[in-house]
């Protein structure tokens, strides 16, 4: 048996773009021959429903970089969340430094009104200008998402305190300055948090056990004799690539990811995931 773990943004799907049909076809072909395809993403589960609805058959999902999971036919499980004390520490630092951040909870994403971050968003747009139309599309998608699909609150920290039933899967920030990124890594890291970069100009703050690597090791206990593959593109995929039997990078992956991988396949936009599965795994 084979188990394929696949990142979503930048790997299975270009952010805001359509999924190449060959990727869907590869999932069905894997399942038909008795193998497993597992989405493993930094997104929260609420952000994955649209993609899941596009599938003709259900898949297992590991979300929030291992903070929770949803197995076929079973309820959603949340197992590695940030404590309120760590949320308070992290948010205080981000507020003091006027950083654009948002909070992923089990009921969706909360943040201040986007109008509070106009200068941050402008700086991010300028940072992505060398990417041309792609950079503009990324920021248009992000800005529209934050305005239209997230919950806006006046004081995120106070809101969390007022709603103890919420589970905080991660705190994510976007920052244009690479120098500030490095400062924030040092300031936000602690024994109770792990900080890593993801996609474009983002840092994510999670519980140290909220790791794609930990989640895969737990999942593979169900299939000890199976061969595992991991396909990714970003820094948050490195823990996954460390624990699978065959680590794979799409062509657009970061260099640090490619260095970890046995195989490098076609770009995300070209359906590299589906091409790889058909060429290497489908009997």
**Shape-level CATH architecture of the largest domain:** 3-Layer(aba) Sandwich
CATH topology of the largest domain: Rossmann fold
Mean pLDDT: 94
Biggest sheet, open or closed, and with what strands and sense? 8 strands, mixed
Helix fraction bin: 25-40%
Structural class comes to: alpha/beta
Instruction: Give me the count of strands.
Output: 14
CATH superfamily heading of the largest domain: HAD superfamily/HAD-like
Q: Using only CA atoms, what is the Rg?
A: 18 Å
* Low-confidence blocks of residues: none
Query: In angstroms, what separates the terminal alpha carbons?
Result: 12 Å
Q: Looking at the structure, what is the overall shape? A: globular
Describe this structure as you would to a colleague.
The protein has 283 residues and is an alpha/beta fold. It folds into 2 domains: 2-79 and 210-280, Rossmann fold (3-Layer(aba) Sandwich); 84-206, Hypothetical Protein, Haloacid Dehalogenase-like Hydrolase, Chain: A, domain 2 (2-Layer Sandwich). The chain contains 11 helices and 14 strands. The chain has helices spanning 21-32, 49-53, 84-96, 118-127, 133-148, 156-162, 178-188, 212-220, 238-243, 255-258, 272-280, and strands at residues 2-6, 36-40, 60-63, 68-70, 77-78, 100-105, 108-111, 151-152, 168-174, 194-198, 202-206, 227-232, 246-249, 263-264. The protein has an 8-stranded mixed beta sheet with strand order 5-4-3-2-1-12-13-14. Strands 8-7-6-9-11-10 form a 6-stranded mixed beta sheet, sandwiched between helices. A hairpin with a 4-residue loop joins β3 (60-63) and β4. It is globular, with a radius of gyration of 18 Å. GO terms for molecular function: magnesium ion binding; phosphatase activity. This is Cof-like hydrolase. InterPro entries: HAD-like_sf, HAD-SF_hydro_IIB, HAD_sf. Pfam families: Hydrolase_3.
